[in-house]
Amino acid sequence: MPTQTIDTSFAVFVVEPGARVHVTAKPGDHTLVEATASMAIFGRVCSEHGKRVRAIVDMRATRSVSREARQLYLQDSGVNLGTALLVDSGISRVIGNFIIGLNRGAVQVRLFEDEQAARAWLEALADA
Length: 128
What we know:
Elements: E1 4-7, E2 11-16, E3 20-25, E4 28-30, H1 32-49, E5 53-58, E6 62-65, H2 67-74, E7 80-86, H3 91-102, E8 108-112, H4 115-124
Parallel strand pairs: 3-5, 4-6, 5-7, 7-8
Antiparallel strand pairs: 1-2, 2-3
């Protein structure tokens, strides 16, 4: 399946072969509305590829993520195998640590500054 790009008002989703999705957040706040739309895209990718999504989310432009959005992302919806959050040393790292630290969910999530390390971690996850 070829690479597909989905450009929304809040992020650009690049769907790669094997149910891999690279999400680049656009500057702004992330609420339940954006989280619901993101999960719908992940659900569609999971359905089309027949396997759970491995996601890299570049959240370096994100200003905030609402509590409701964090809760939705960390629920076991059956579509997301793991998420690698790309952060920098600024606010995105604070937000990422907050997401991981306060919300121990069913979805595996880790922070990375290096995209190659994020990809390697995602590839090492066992398909569920």
